[in-house]
Amino acid sequence: MPAPTPDGWRAVDTYLADLLVGHDDVLEQALRDQDAAGLPSIEVAPVNAKFLHLLARIAGARRVLEIGTLGGYSTIWLARALPEGGRVTTIEAEPANADVARRNLARAGVQHRVEIVVGRGADVLPTLTGPFDLVFIDADKESNTIYLDAAARLGRPGTVVVVDNVVRSGRVADPTARDTQVEGVRRGLEMLGSDPRFDATALQTLDAKGWDGIAVALLTDADAPA
User: Fold this and answer.
1) Is the pTM of this model over 0.90?
2) N or C: which terminal CB in the chain sees fewer CB atoms within 10 Å?
3) Which residue segments constitute the domains of the chain, with CATH numbers given?
């Protein structure tokens, strides 16, 4: 079996995205506007965005919490998954990013389903009231344990929790990699593995964003002690 190469997995990602995701002028313009505004290109890949969308639908989610809005690309996908009356609450630390996201959400016609809360996640999360049906964590990795604890507090048994960027090009399993983001990811994964409030697994991904992965957890008992 041939080993995967960057050219190979990007070709597969393009094939799958073209076949199963397709093209969407609104979403593609959102990415162009994000790039034009100088935001980093760290949004989820299209196949992963549709995965989030389908997870929200499978879970029957009506209330979604997103930690890390960026330009609103994943927010649009999540908002489109919700039934009438559904709501996404998304937290963004940078006001300029939130401005880009608001314009993208308005163009997508989902602004009525989304509340953008500007501020650091650690500061905003204690002010929110649950329960949320799905929580997507895609912000600073150093705070993953804070975000997971908040997800448990703001969720309910059966809430789906997704954590992005948990492989970090393989560095998560490299004992010599000690940067703060990798350390934050490890602490989050260790929490998912040991905290009785979560039942979790993780998947490696090879896509347009390179070698990374996601953790997916089911909240088992939001009231159990950590």
Assistant:
1) yes
2) N
3) 6-219 (3.40.50.150)
